Amino acid sequence: MTDSNADTTARVDVAEQAARAGATVAGDHFRRGIDVERKGGKTNVVTEADRESQRRVIAEIRETFPDDAVVGEEEDELKAVPDEGAAWVIDPIDGTNNYVRDIRAFATAVAAVVDGEPVASAIALPAMDDVYVADAETVYRNGTEVSVSDRTDPETGAATPTVWWDFDARDEYATACAEIVERFGDMRRFGSAQVTLAMIAEGALDATITNVACNPWDTVAGVHMVRNAGGTVTDLDGDRWRHDSTGLVVSNGSLHDEALAAARAIRAVADGDA
Predict the structure, then answer these.
(1) What is the pLDDT of residues 177-193, one digit of tens each?
(2) Which of 31, 136, 190, 192 could form a disulfide with 95 if both were Cys (CB 3.0 to 4.6 A apart)?
C-alpha cells in the first residue's frame, strides 16, 4: 500500500470514528428537553448538543491528525474549505430543526478533504441506527455496499428540495416544489441535506435540488458519497460541483437532466426572469 493510500484509509477510519462519536453525543441528548437558542433567524437554531458534539468530533480527529484544519458550523472553526492542504469539514447535528422537534432525521457528518476535494466521509444517524461511510471508491451503509437507484423514468422518481429558502425567497421555494411535483413522480423533504444526500447515495431517493450557495458542512460529506455511489453532482450550469459552487443539483445520474432543469427554473425566478 502506498503512503497516499494508507493516508486515505486512515482518514476513512477517523471520519467514521468521529461521526460515530459526535452522533453518540447528539443521540444521548435527543428528546431530553435540551434548551434551544437562535442564531439569527427564526428557524436558525442551535443547542448545547450541537456544540458538545462538534467538540467531540474535533477531539477524535485531533488524536490522529492534530495539525489539519477544521471547518465546522459551530463556534470559532473555519467557515470555508481551504483549497490547499488537508482539512476536515464537520456538521455536529445536520437537521437541528428536526432534532429540537424530536424528529429522528438528523445526522453527524464528517468529511476529509485534501486540496479542496473530499477523499473520505461518514454520516451517522443515531436515532435511526444508520452509519454511512465513503472511502475513495465505495459507499457502505452499516457495512453493506450501496449505490444510487437505477430509475430512468422521472415519473417513477422521488426528488426533494434541499437546504433552505428564507422568508424573502418563498417564491423560489414554491418554484422548487412545483418543478419537482410537475417533473417527478413524488416529492419528499427531510430537513437535513446530509440525510438527503445519504439517501440518494443508497438509492432511496433519486434527486435533490437547490439554487442557493450551500454551506460546506451541509454538503461535502454527502456529495462525496453520492459520487462514489454512481450519482451525479453539479452546479446550476451542469459543471462539476465544488464546495464553493452556487446551487446544488444531485441525482442518480439517469435523471440529472430533469433535476437540472428544475433547479434552473428556481434560478430564473430568483433572477426575475420567470
Answers:
(1) 999 999 999 999 999 99
(2) 192
Residue 153: count other Cβ atoms within 10 Å of its Cβ: 11
Which residues lie below 8 Å from residue 159, measured CB to CB, with a gap of 6+? Answer: 180, 183, 184, 186, 187, 188, 205, 206, 207, 208, 209, 255, 259, 262
CATH code of the domain occupying 3-146: 3.30.540.10
Sheet holding 107-114, edge to edge: 69-72, 86-94, 107-114, 117-125, 130-134, 139-141, 144-146
pLDDT digits (tens, 9 = 90+) for 111-139: 999 999 999 999 999 999 999 999 999 99
154-270 matches 3-146 in CATH topology:
no
- Integer distance in angstroms from the first to the last C-alpha of the chain? 54
User: What gap in Å lies between CA 23 and CA 10, rounded to an integer?
Assistant: 20
Pairwise CA distance, residues 174 & 11, whole Å: 40
* Interatomic CA distance for residues 19 and 178, integer angstroms: 35
Please say whether the beta carbons of 176 and 262 come within 8 A.
yes
